[in-house]
Design goal:
alpha+beta; 18% strand; Beta-Lactamase; 12 helices; 3 domains; Enolase-like, domain 1
Length: 351
Amino acid sequence: MSGPHSDPPNDRAGRILRALIVDYIKGGQPVGSRTLSKHTGLTLSSATIRNVMSDLEELGFIISPHTSAGRIPTAKGYRFFVDTLVKLQPPAVGEISRIQHTLEDDVSGDAKAIAAAASSALSSLTNLAGVVTIPKQTCTTLRQIEFLPLSDRQVLAILVLNDREVENRILHMDRDYSADELQCAANYLNASFAGKDLGEVRAHILAELGSTRESMNQLMIDAVNIAQKAFDADISTNAFVISGETRLMGFDELSNMDKLKQLFEAFNQQRDILHLLDRSMSTDGVQIFIGEESGYEILDECSVVAAPYRVDDKTVGVLGVIGPTRMAYERVIPIVDITAKLVGSALNSNQ
């Protein structure tokens, strides 16, 4: 759950910050010193609490909205809260049973149905949007790849996967490629990657994209550029299931219709959300992106709480929730964590 923060507040300030965030998450209203003097358990005067709040504001953990004398947490305040101050509340036994029953009912071992059931369970338990990537086959092997030039800077990629599955993908390139260039690129990729797991190939291509171009000849640059488009297509279509997006309309912070439209469009396009979830594939346990930490402007007012799930000790997907930064982290984090474990178990038992 770690993330960047600096200048940690002292113990007293930490308790006041925790009380302020808990109160704000619950009520959604800016929190004043009088409210805090009742809720912190500290025998402090309102004046002392006001001084501490002033220090916390200076450190960037809280801000004062124009319309109120109270304060609300910043993304930095939430980050310190989830890293240091949050007191997690494990789901009740009944809630865990509900998730298990949802995953067992009518899914008949189908991985996509399990993903849909899990996203629905996450959404109904947290009252946020639940998102689950459809598990990648534990092993999809690239046998061969071929490219054919089409008109208008388009290329047809023909991928032979596993034993004899064939997938055709139309790639939109930055320039036209000749048949010879495409043949050379295919030869290079087949020599380098035939017989390897598709996830491994993708990771290698992404690493090559990030490496210095000076050390690569034109053939390699072309091959990597074309391959990136081909393997990106692998994750851009129907790759995750989302439930409960409309629940987000109930939060004041997200009630701006233009922002909501953009957010729903991002859910529909999938690509940015998927890249964000992909960053949780290689982590252990729950990862939290608060506001701008996601790197996507559309999620600046949101938090994403995500965790990878595993089959046979191999990570095959990620699940989580998307909601406003004002979410009940102490409840949401354990629900995401246990759901990831239960989805892994359901997929394991259905193999």
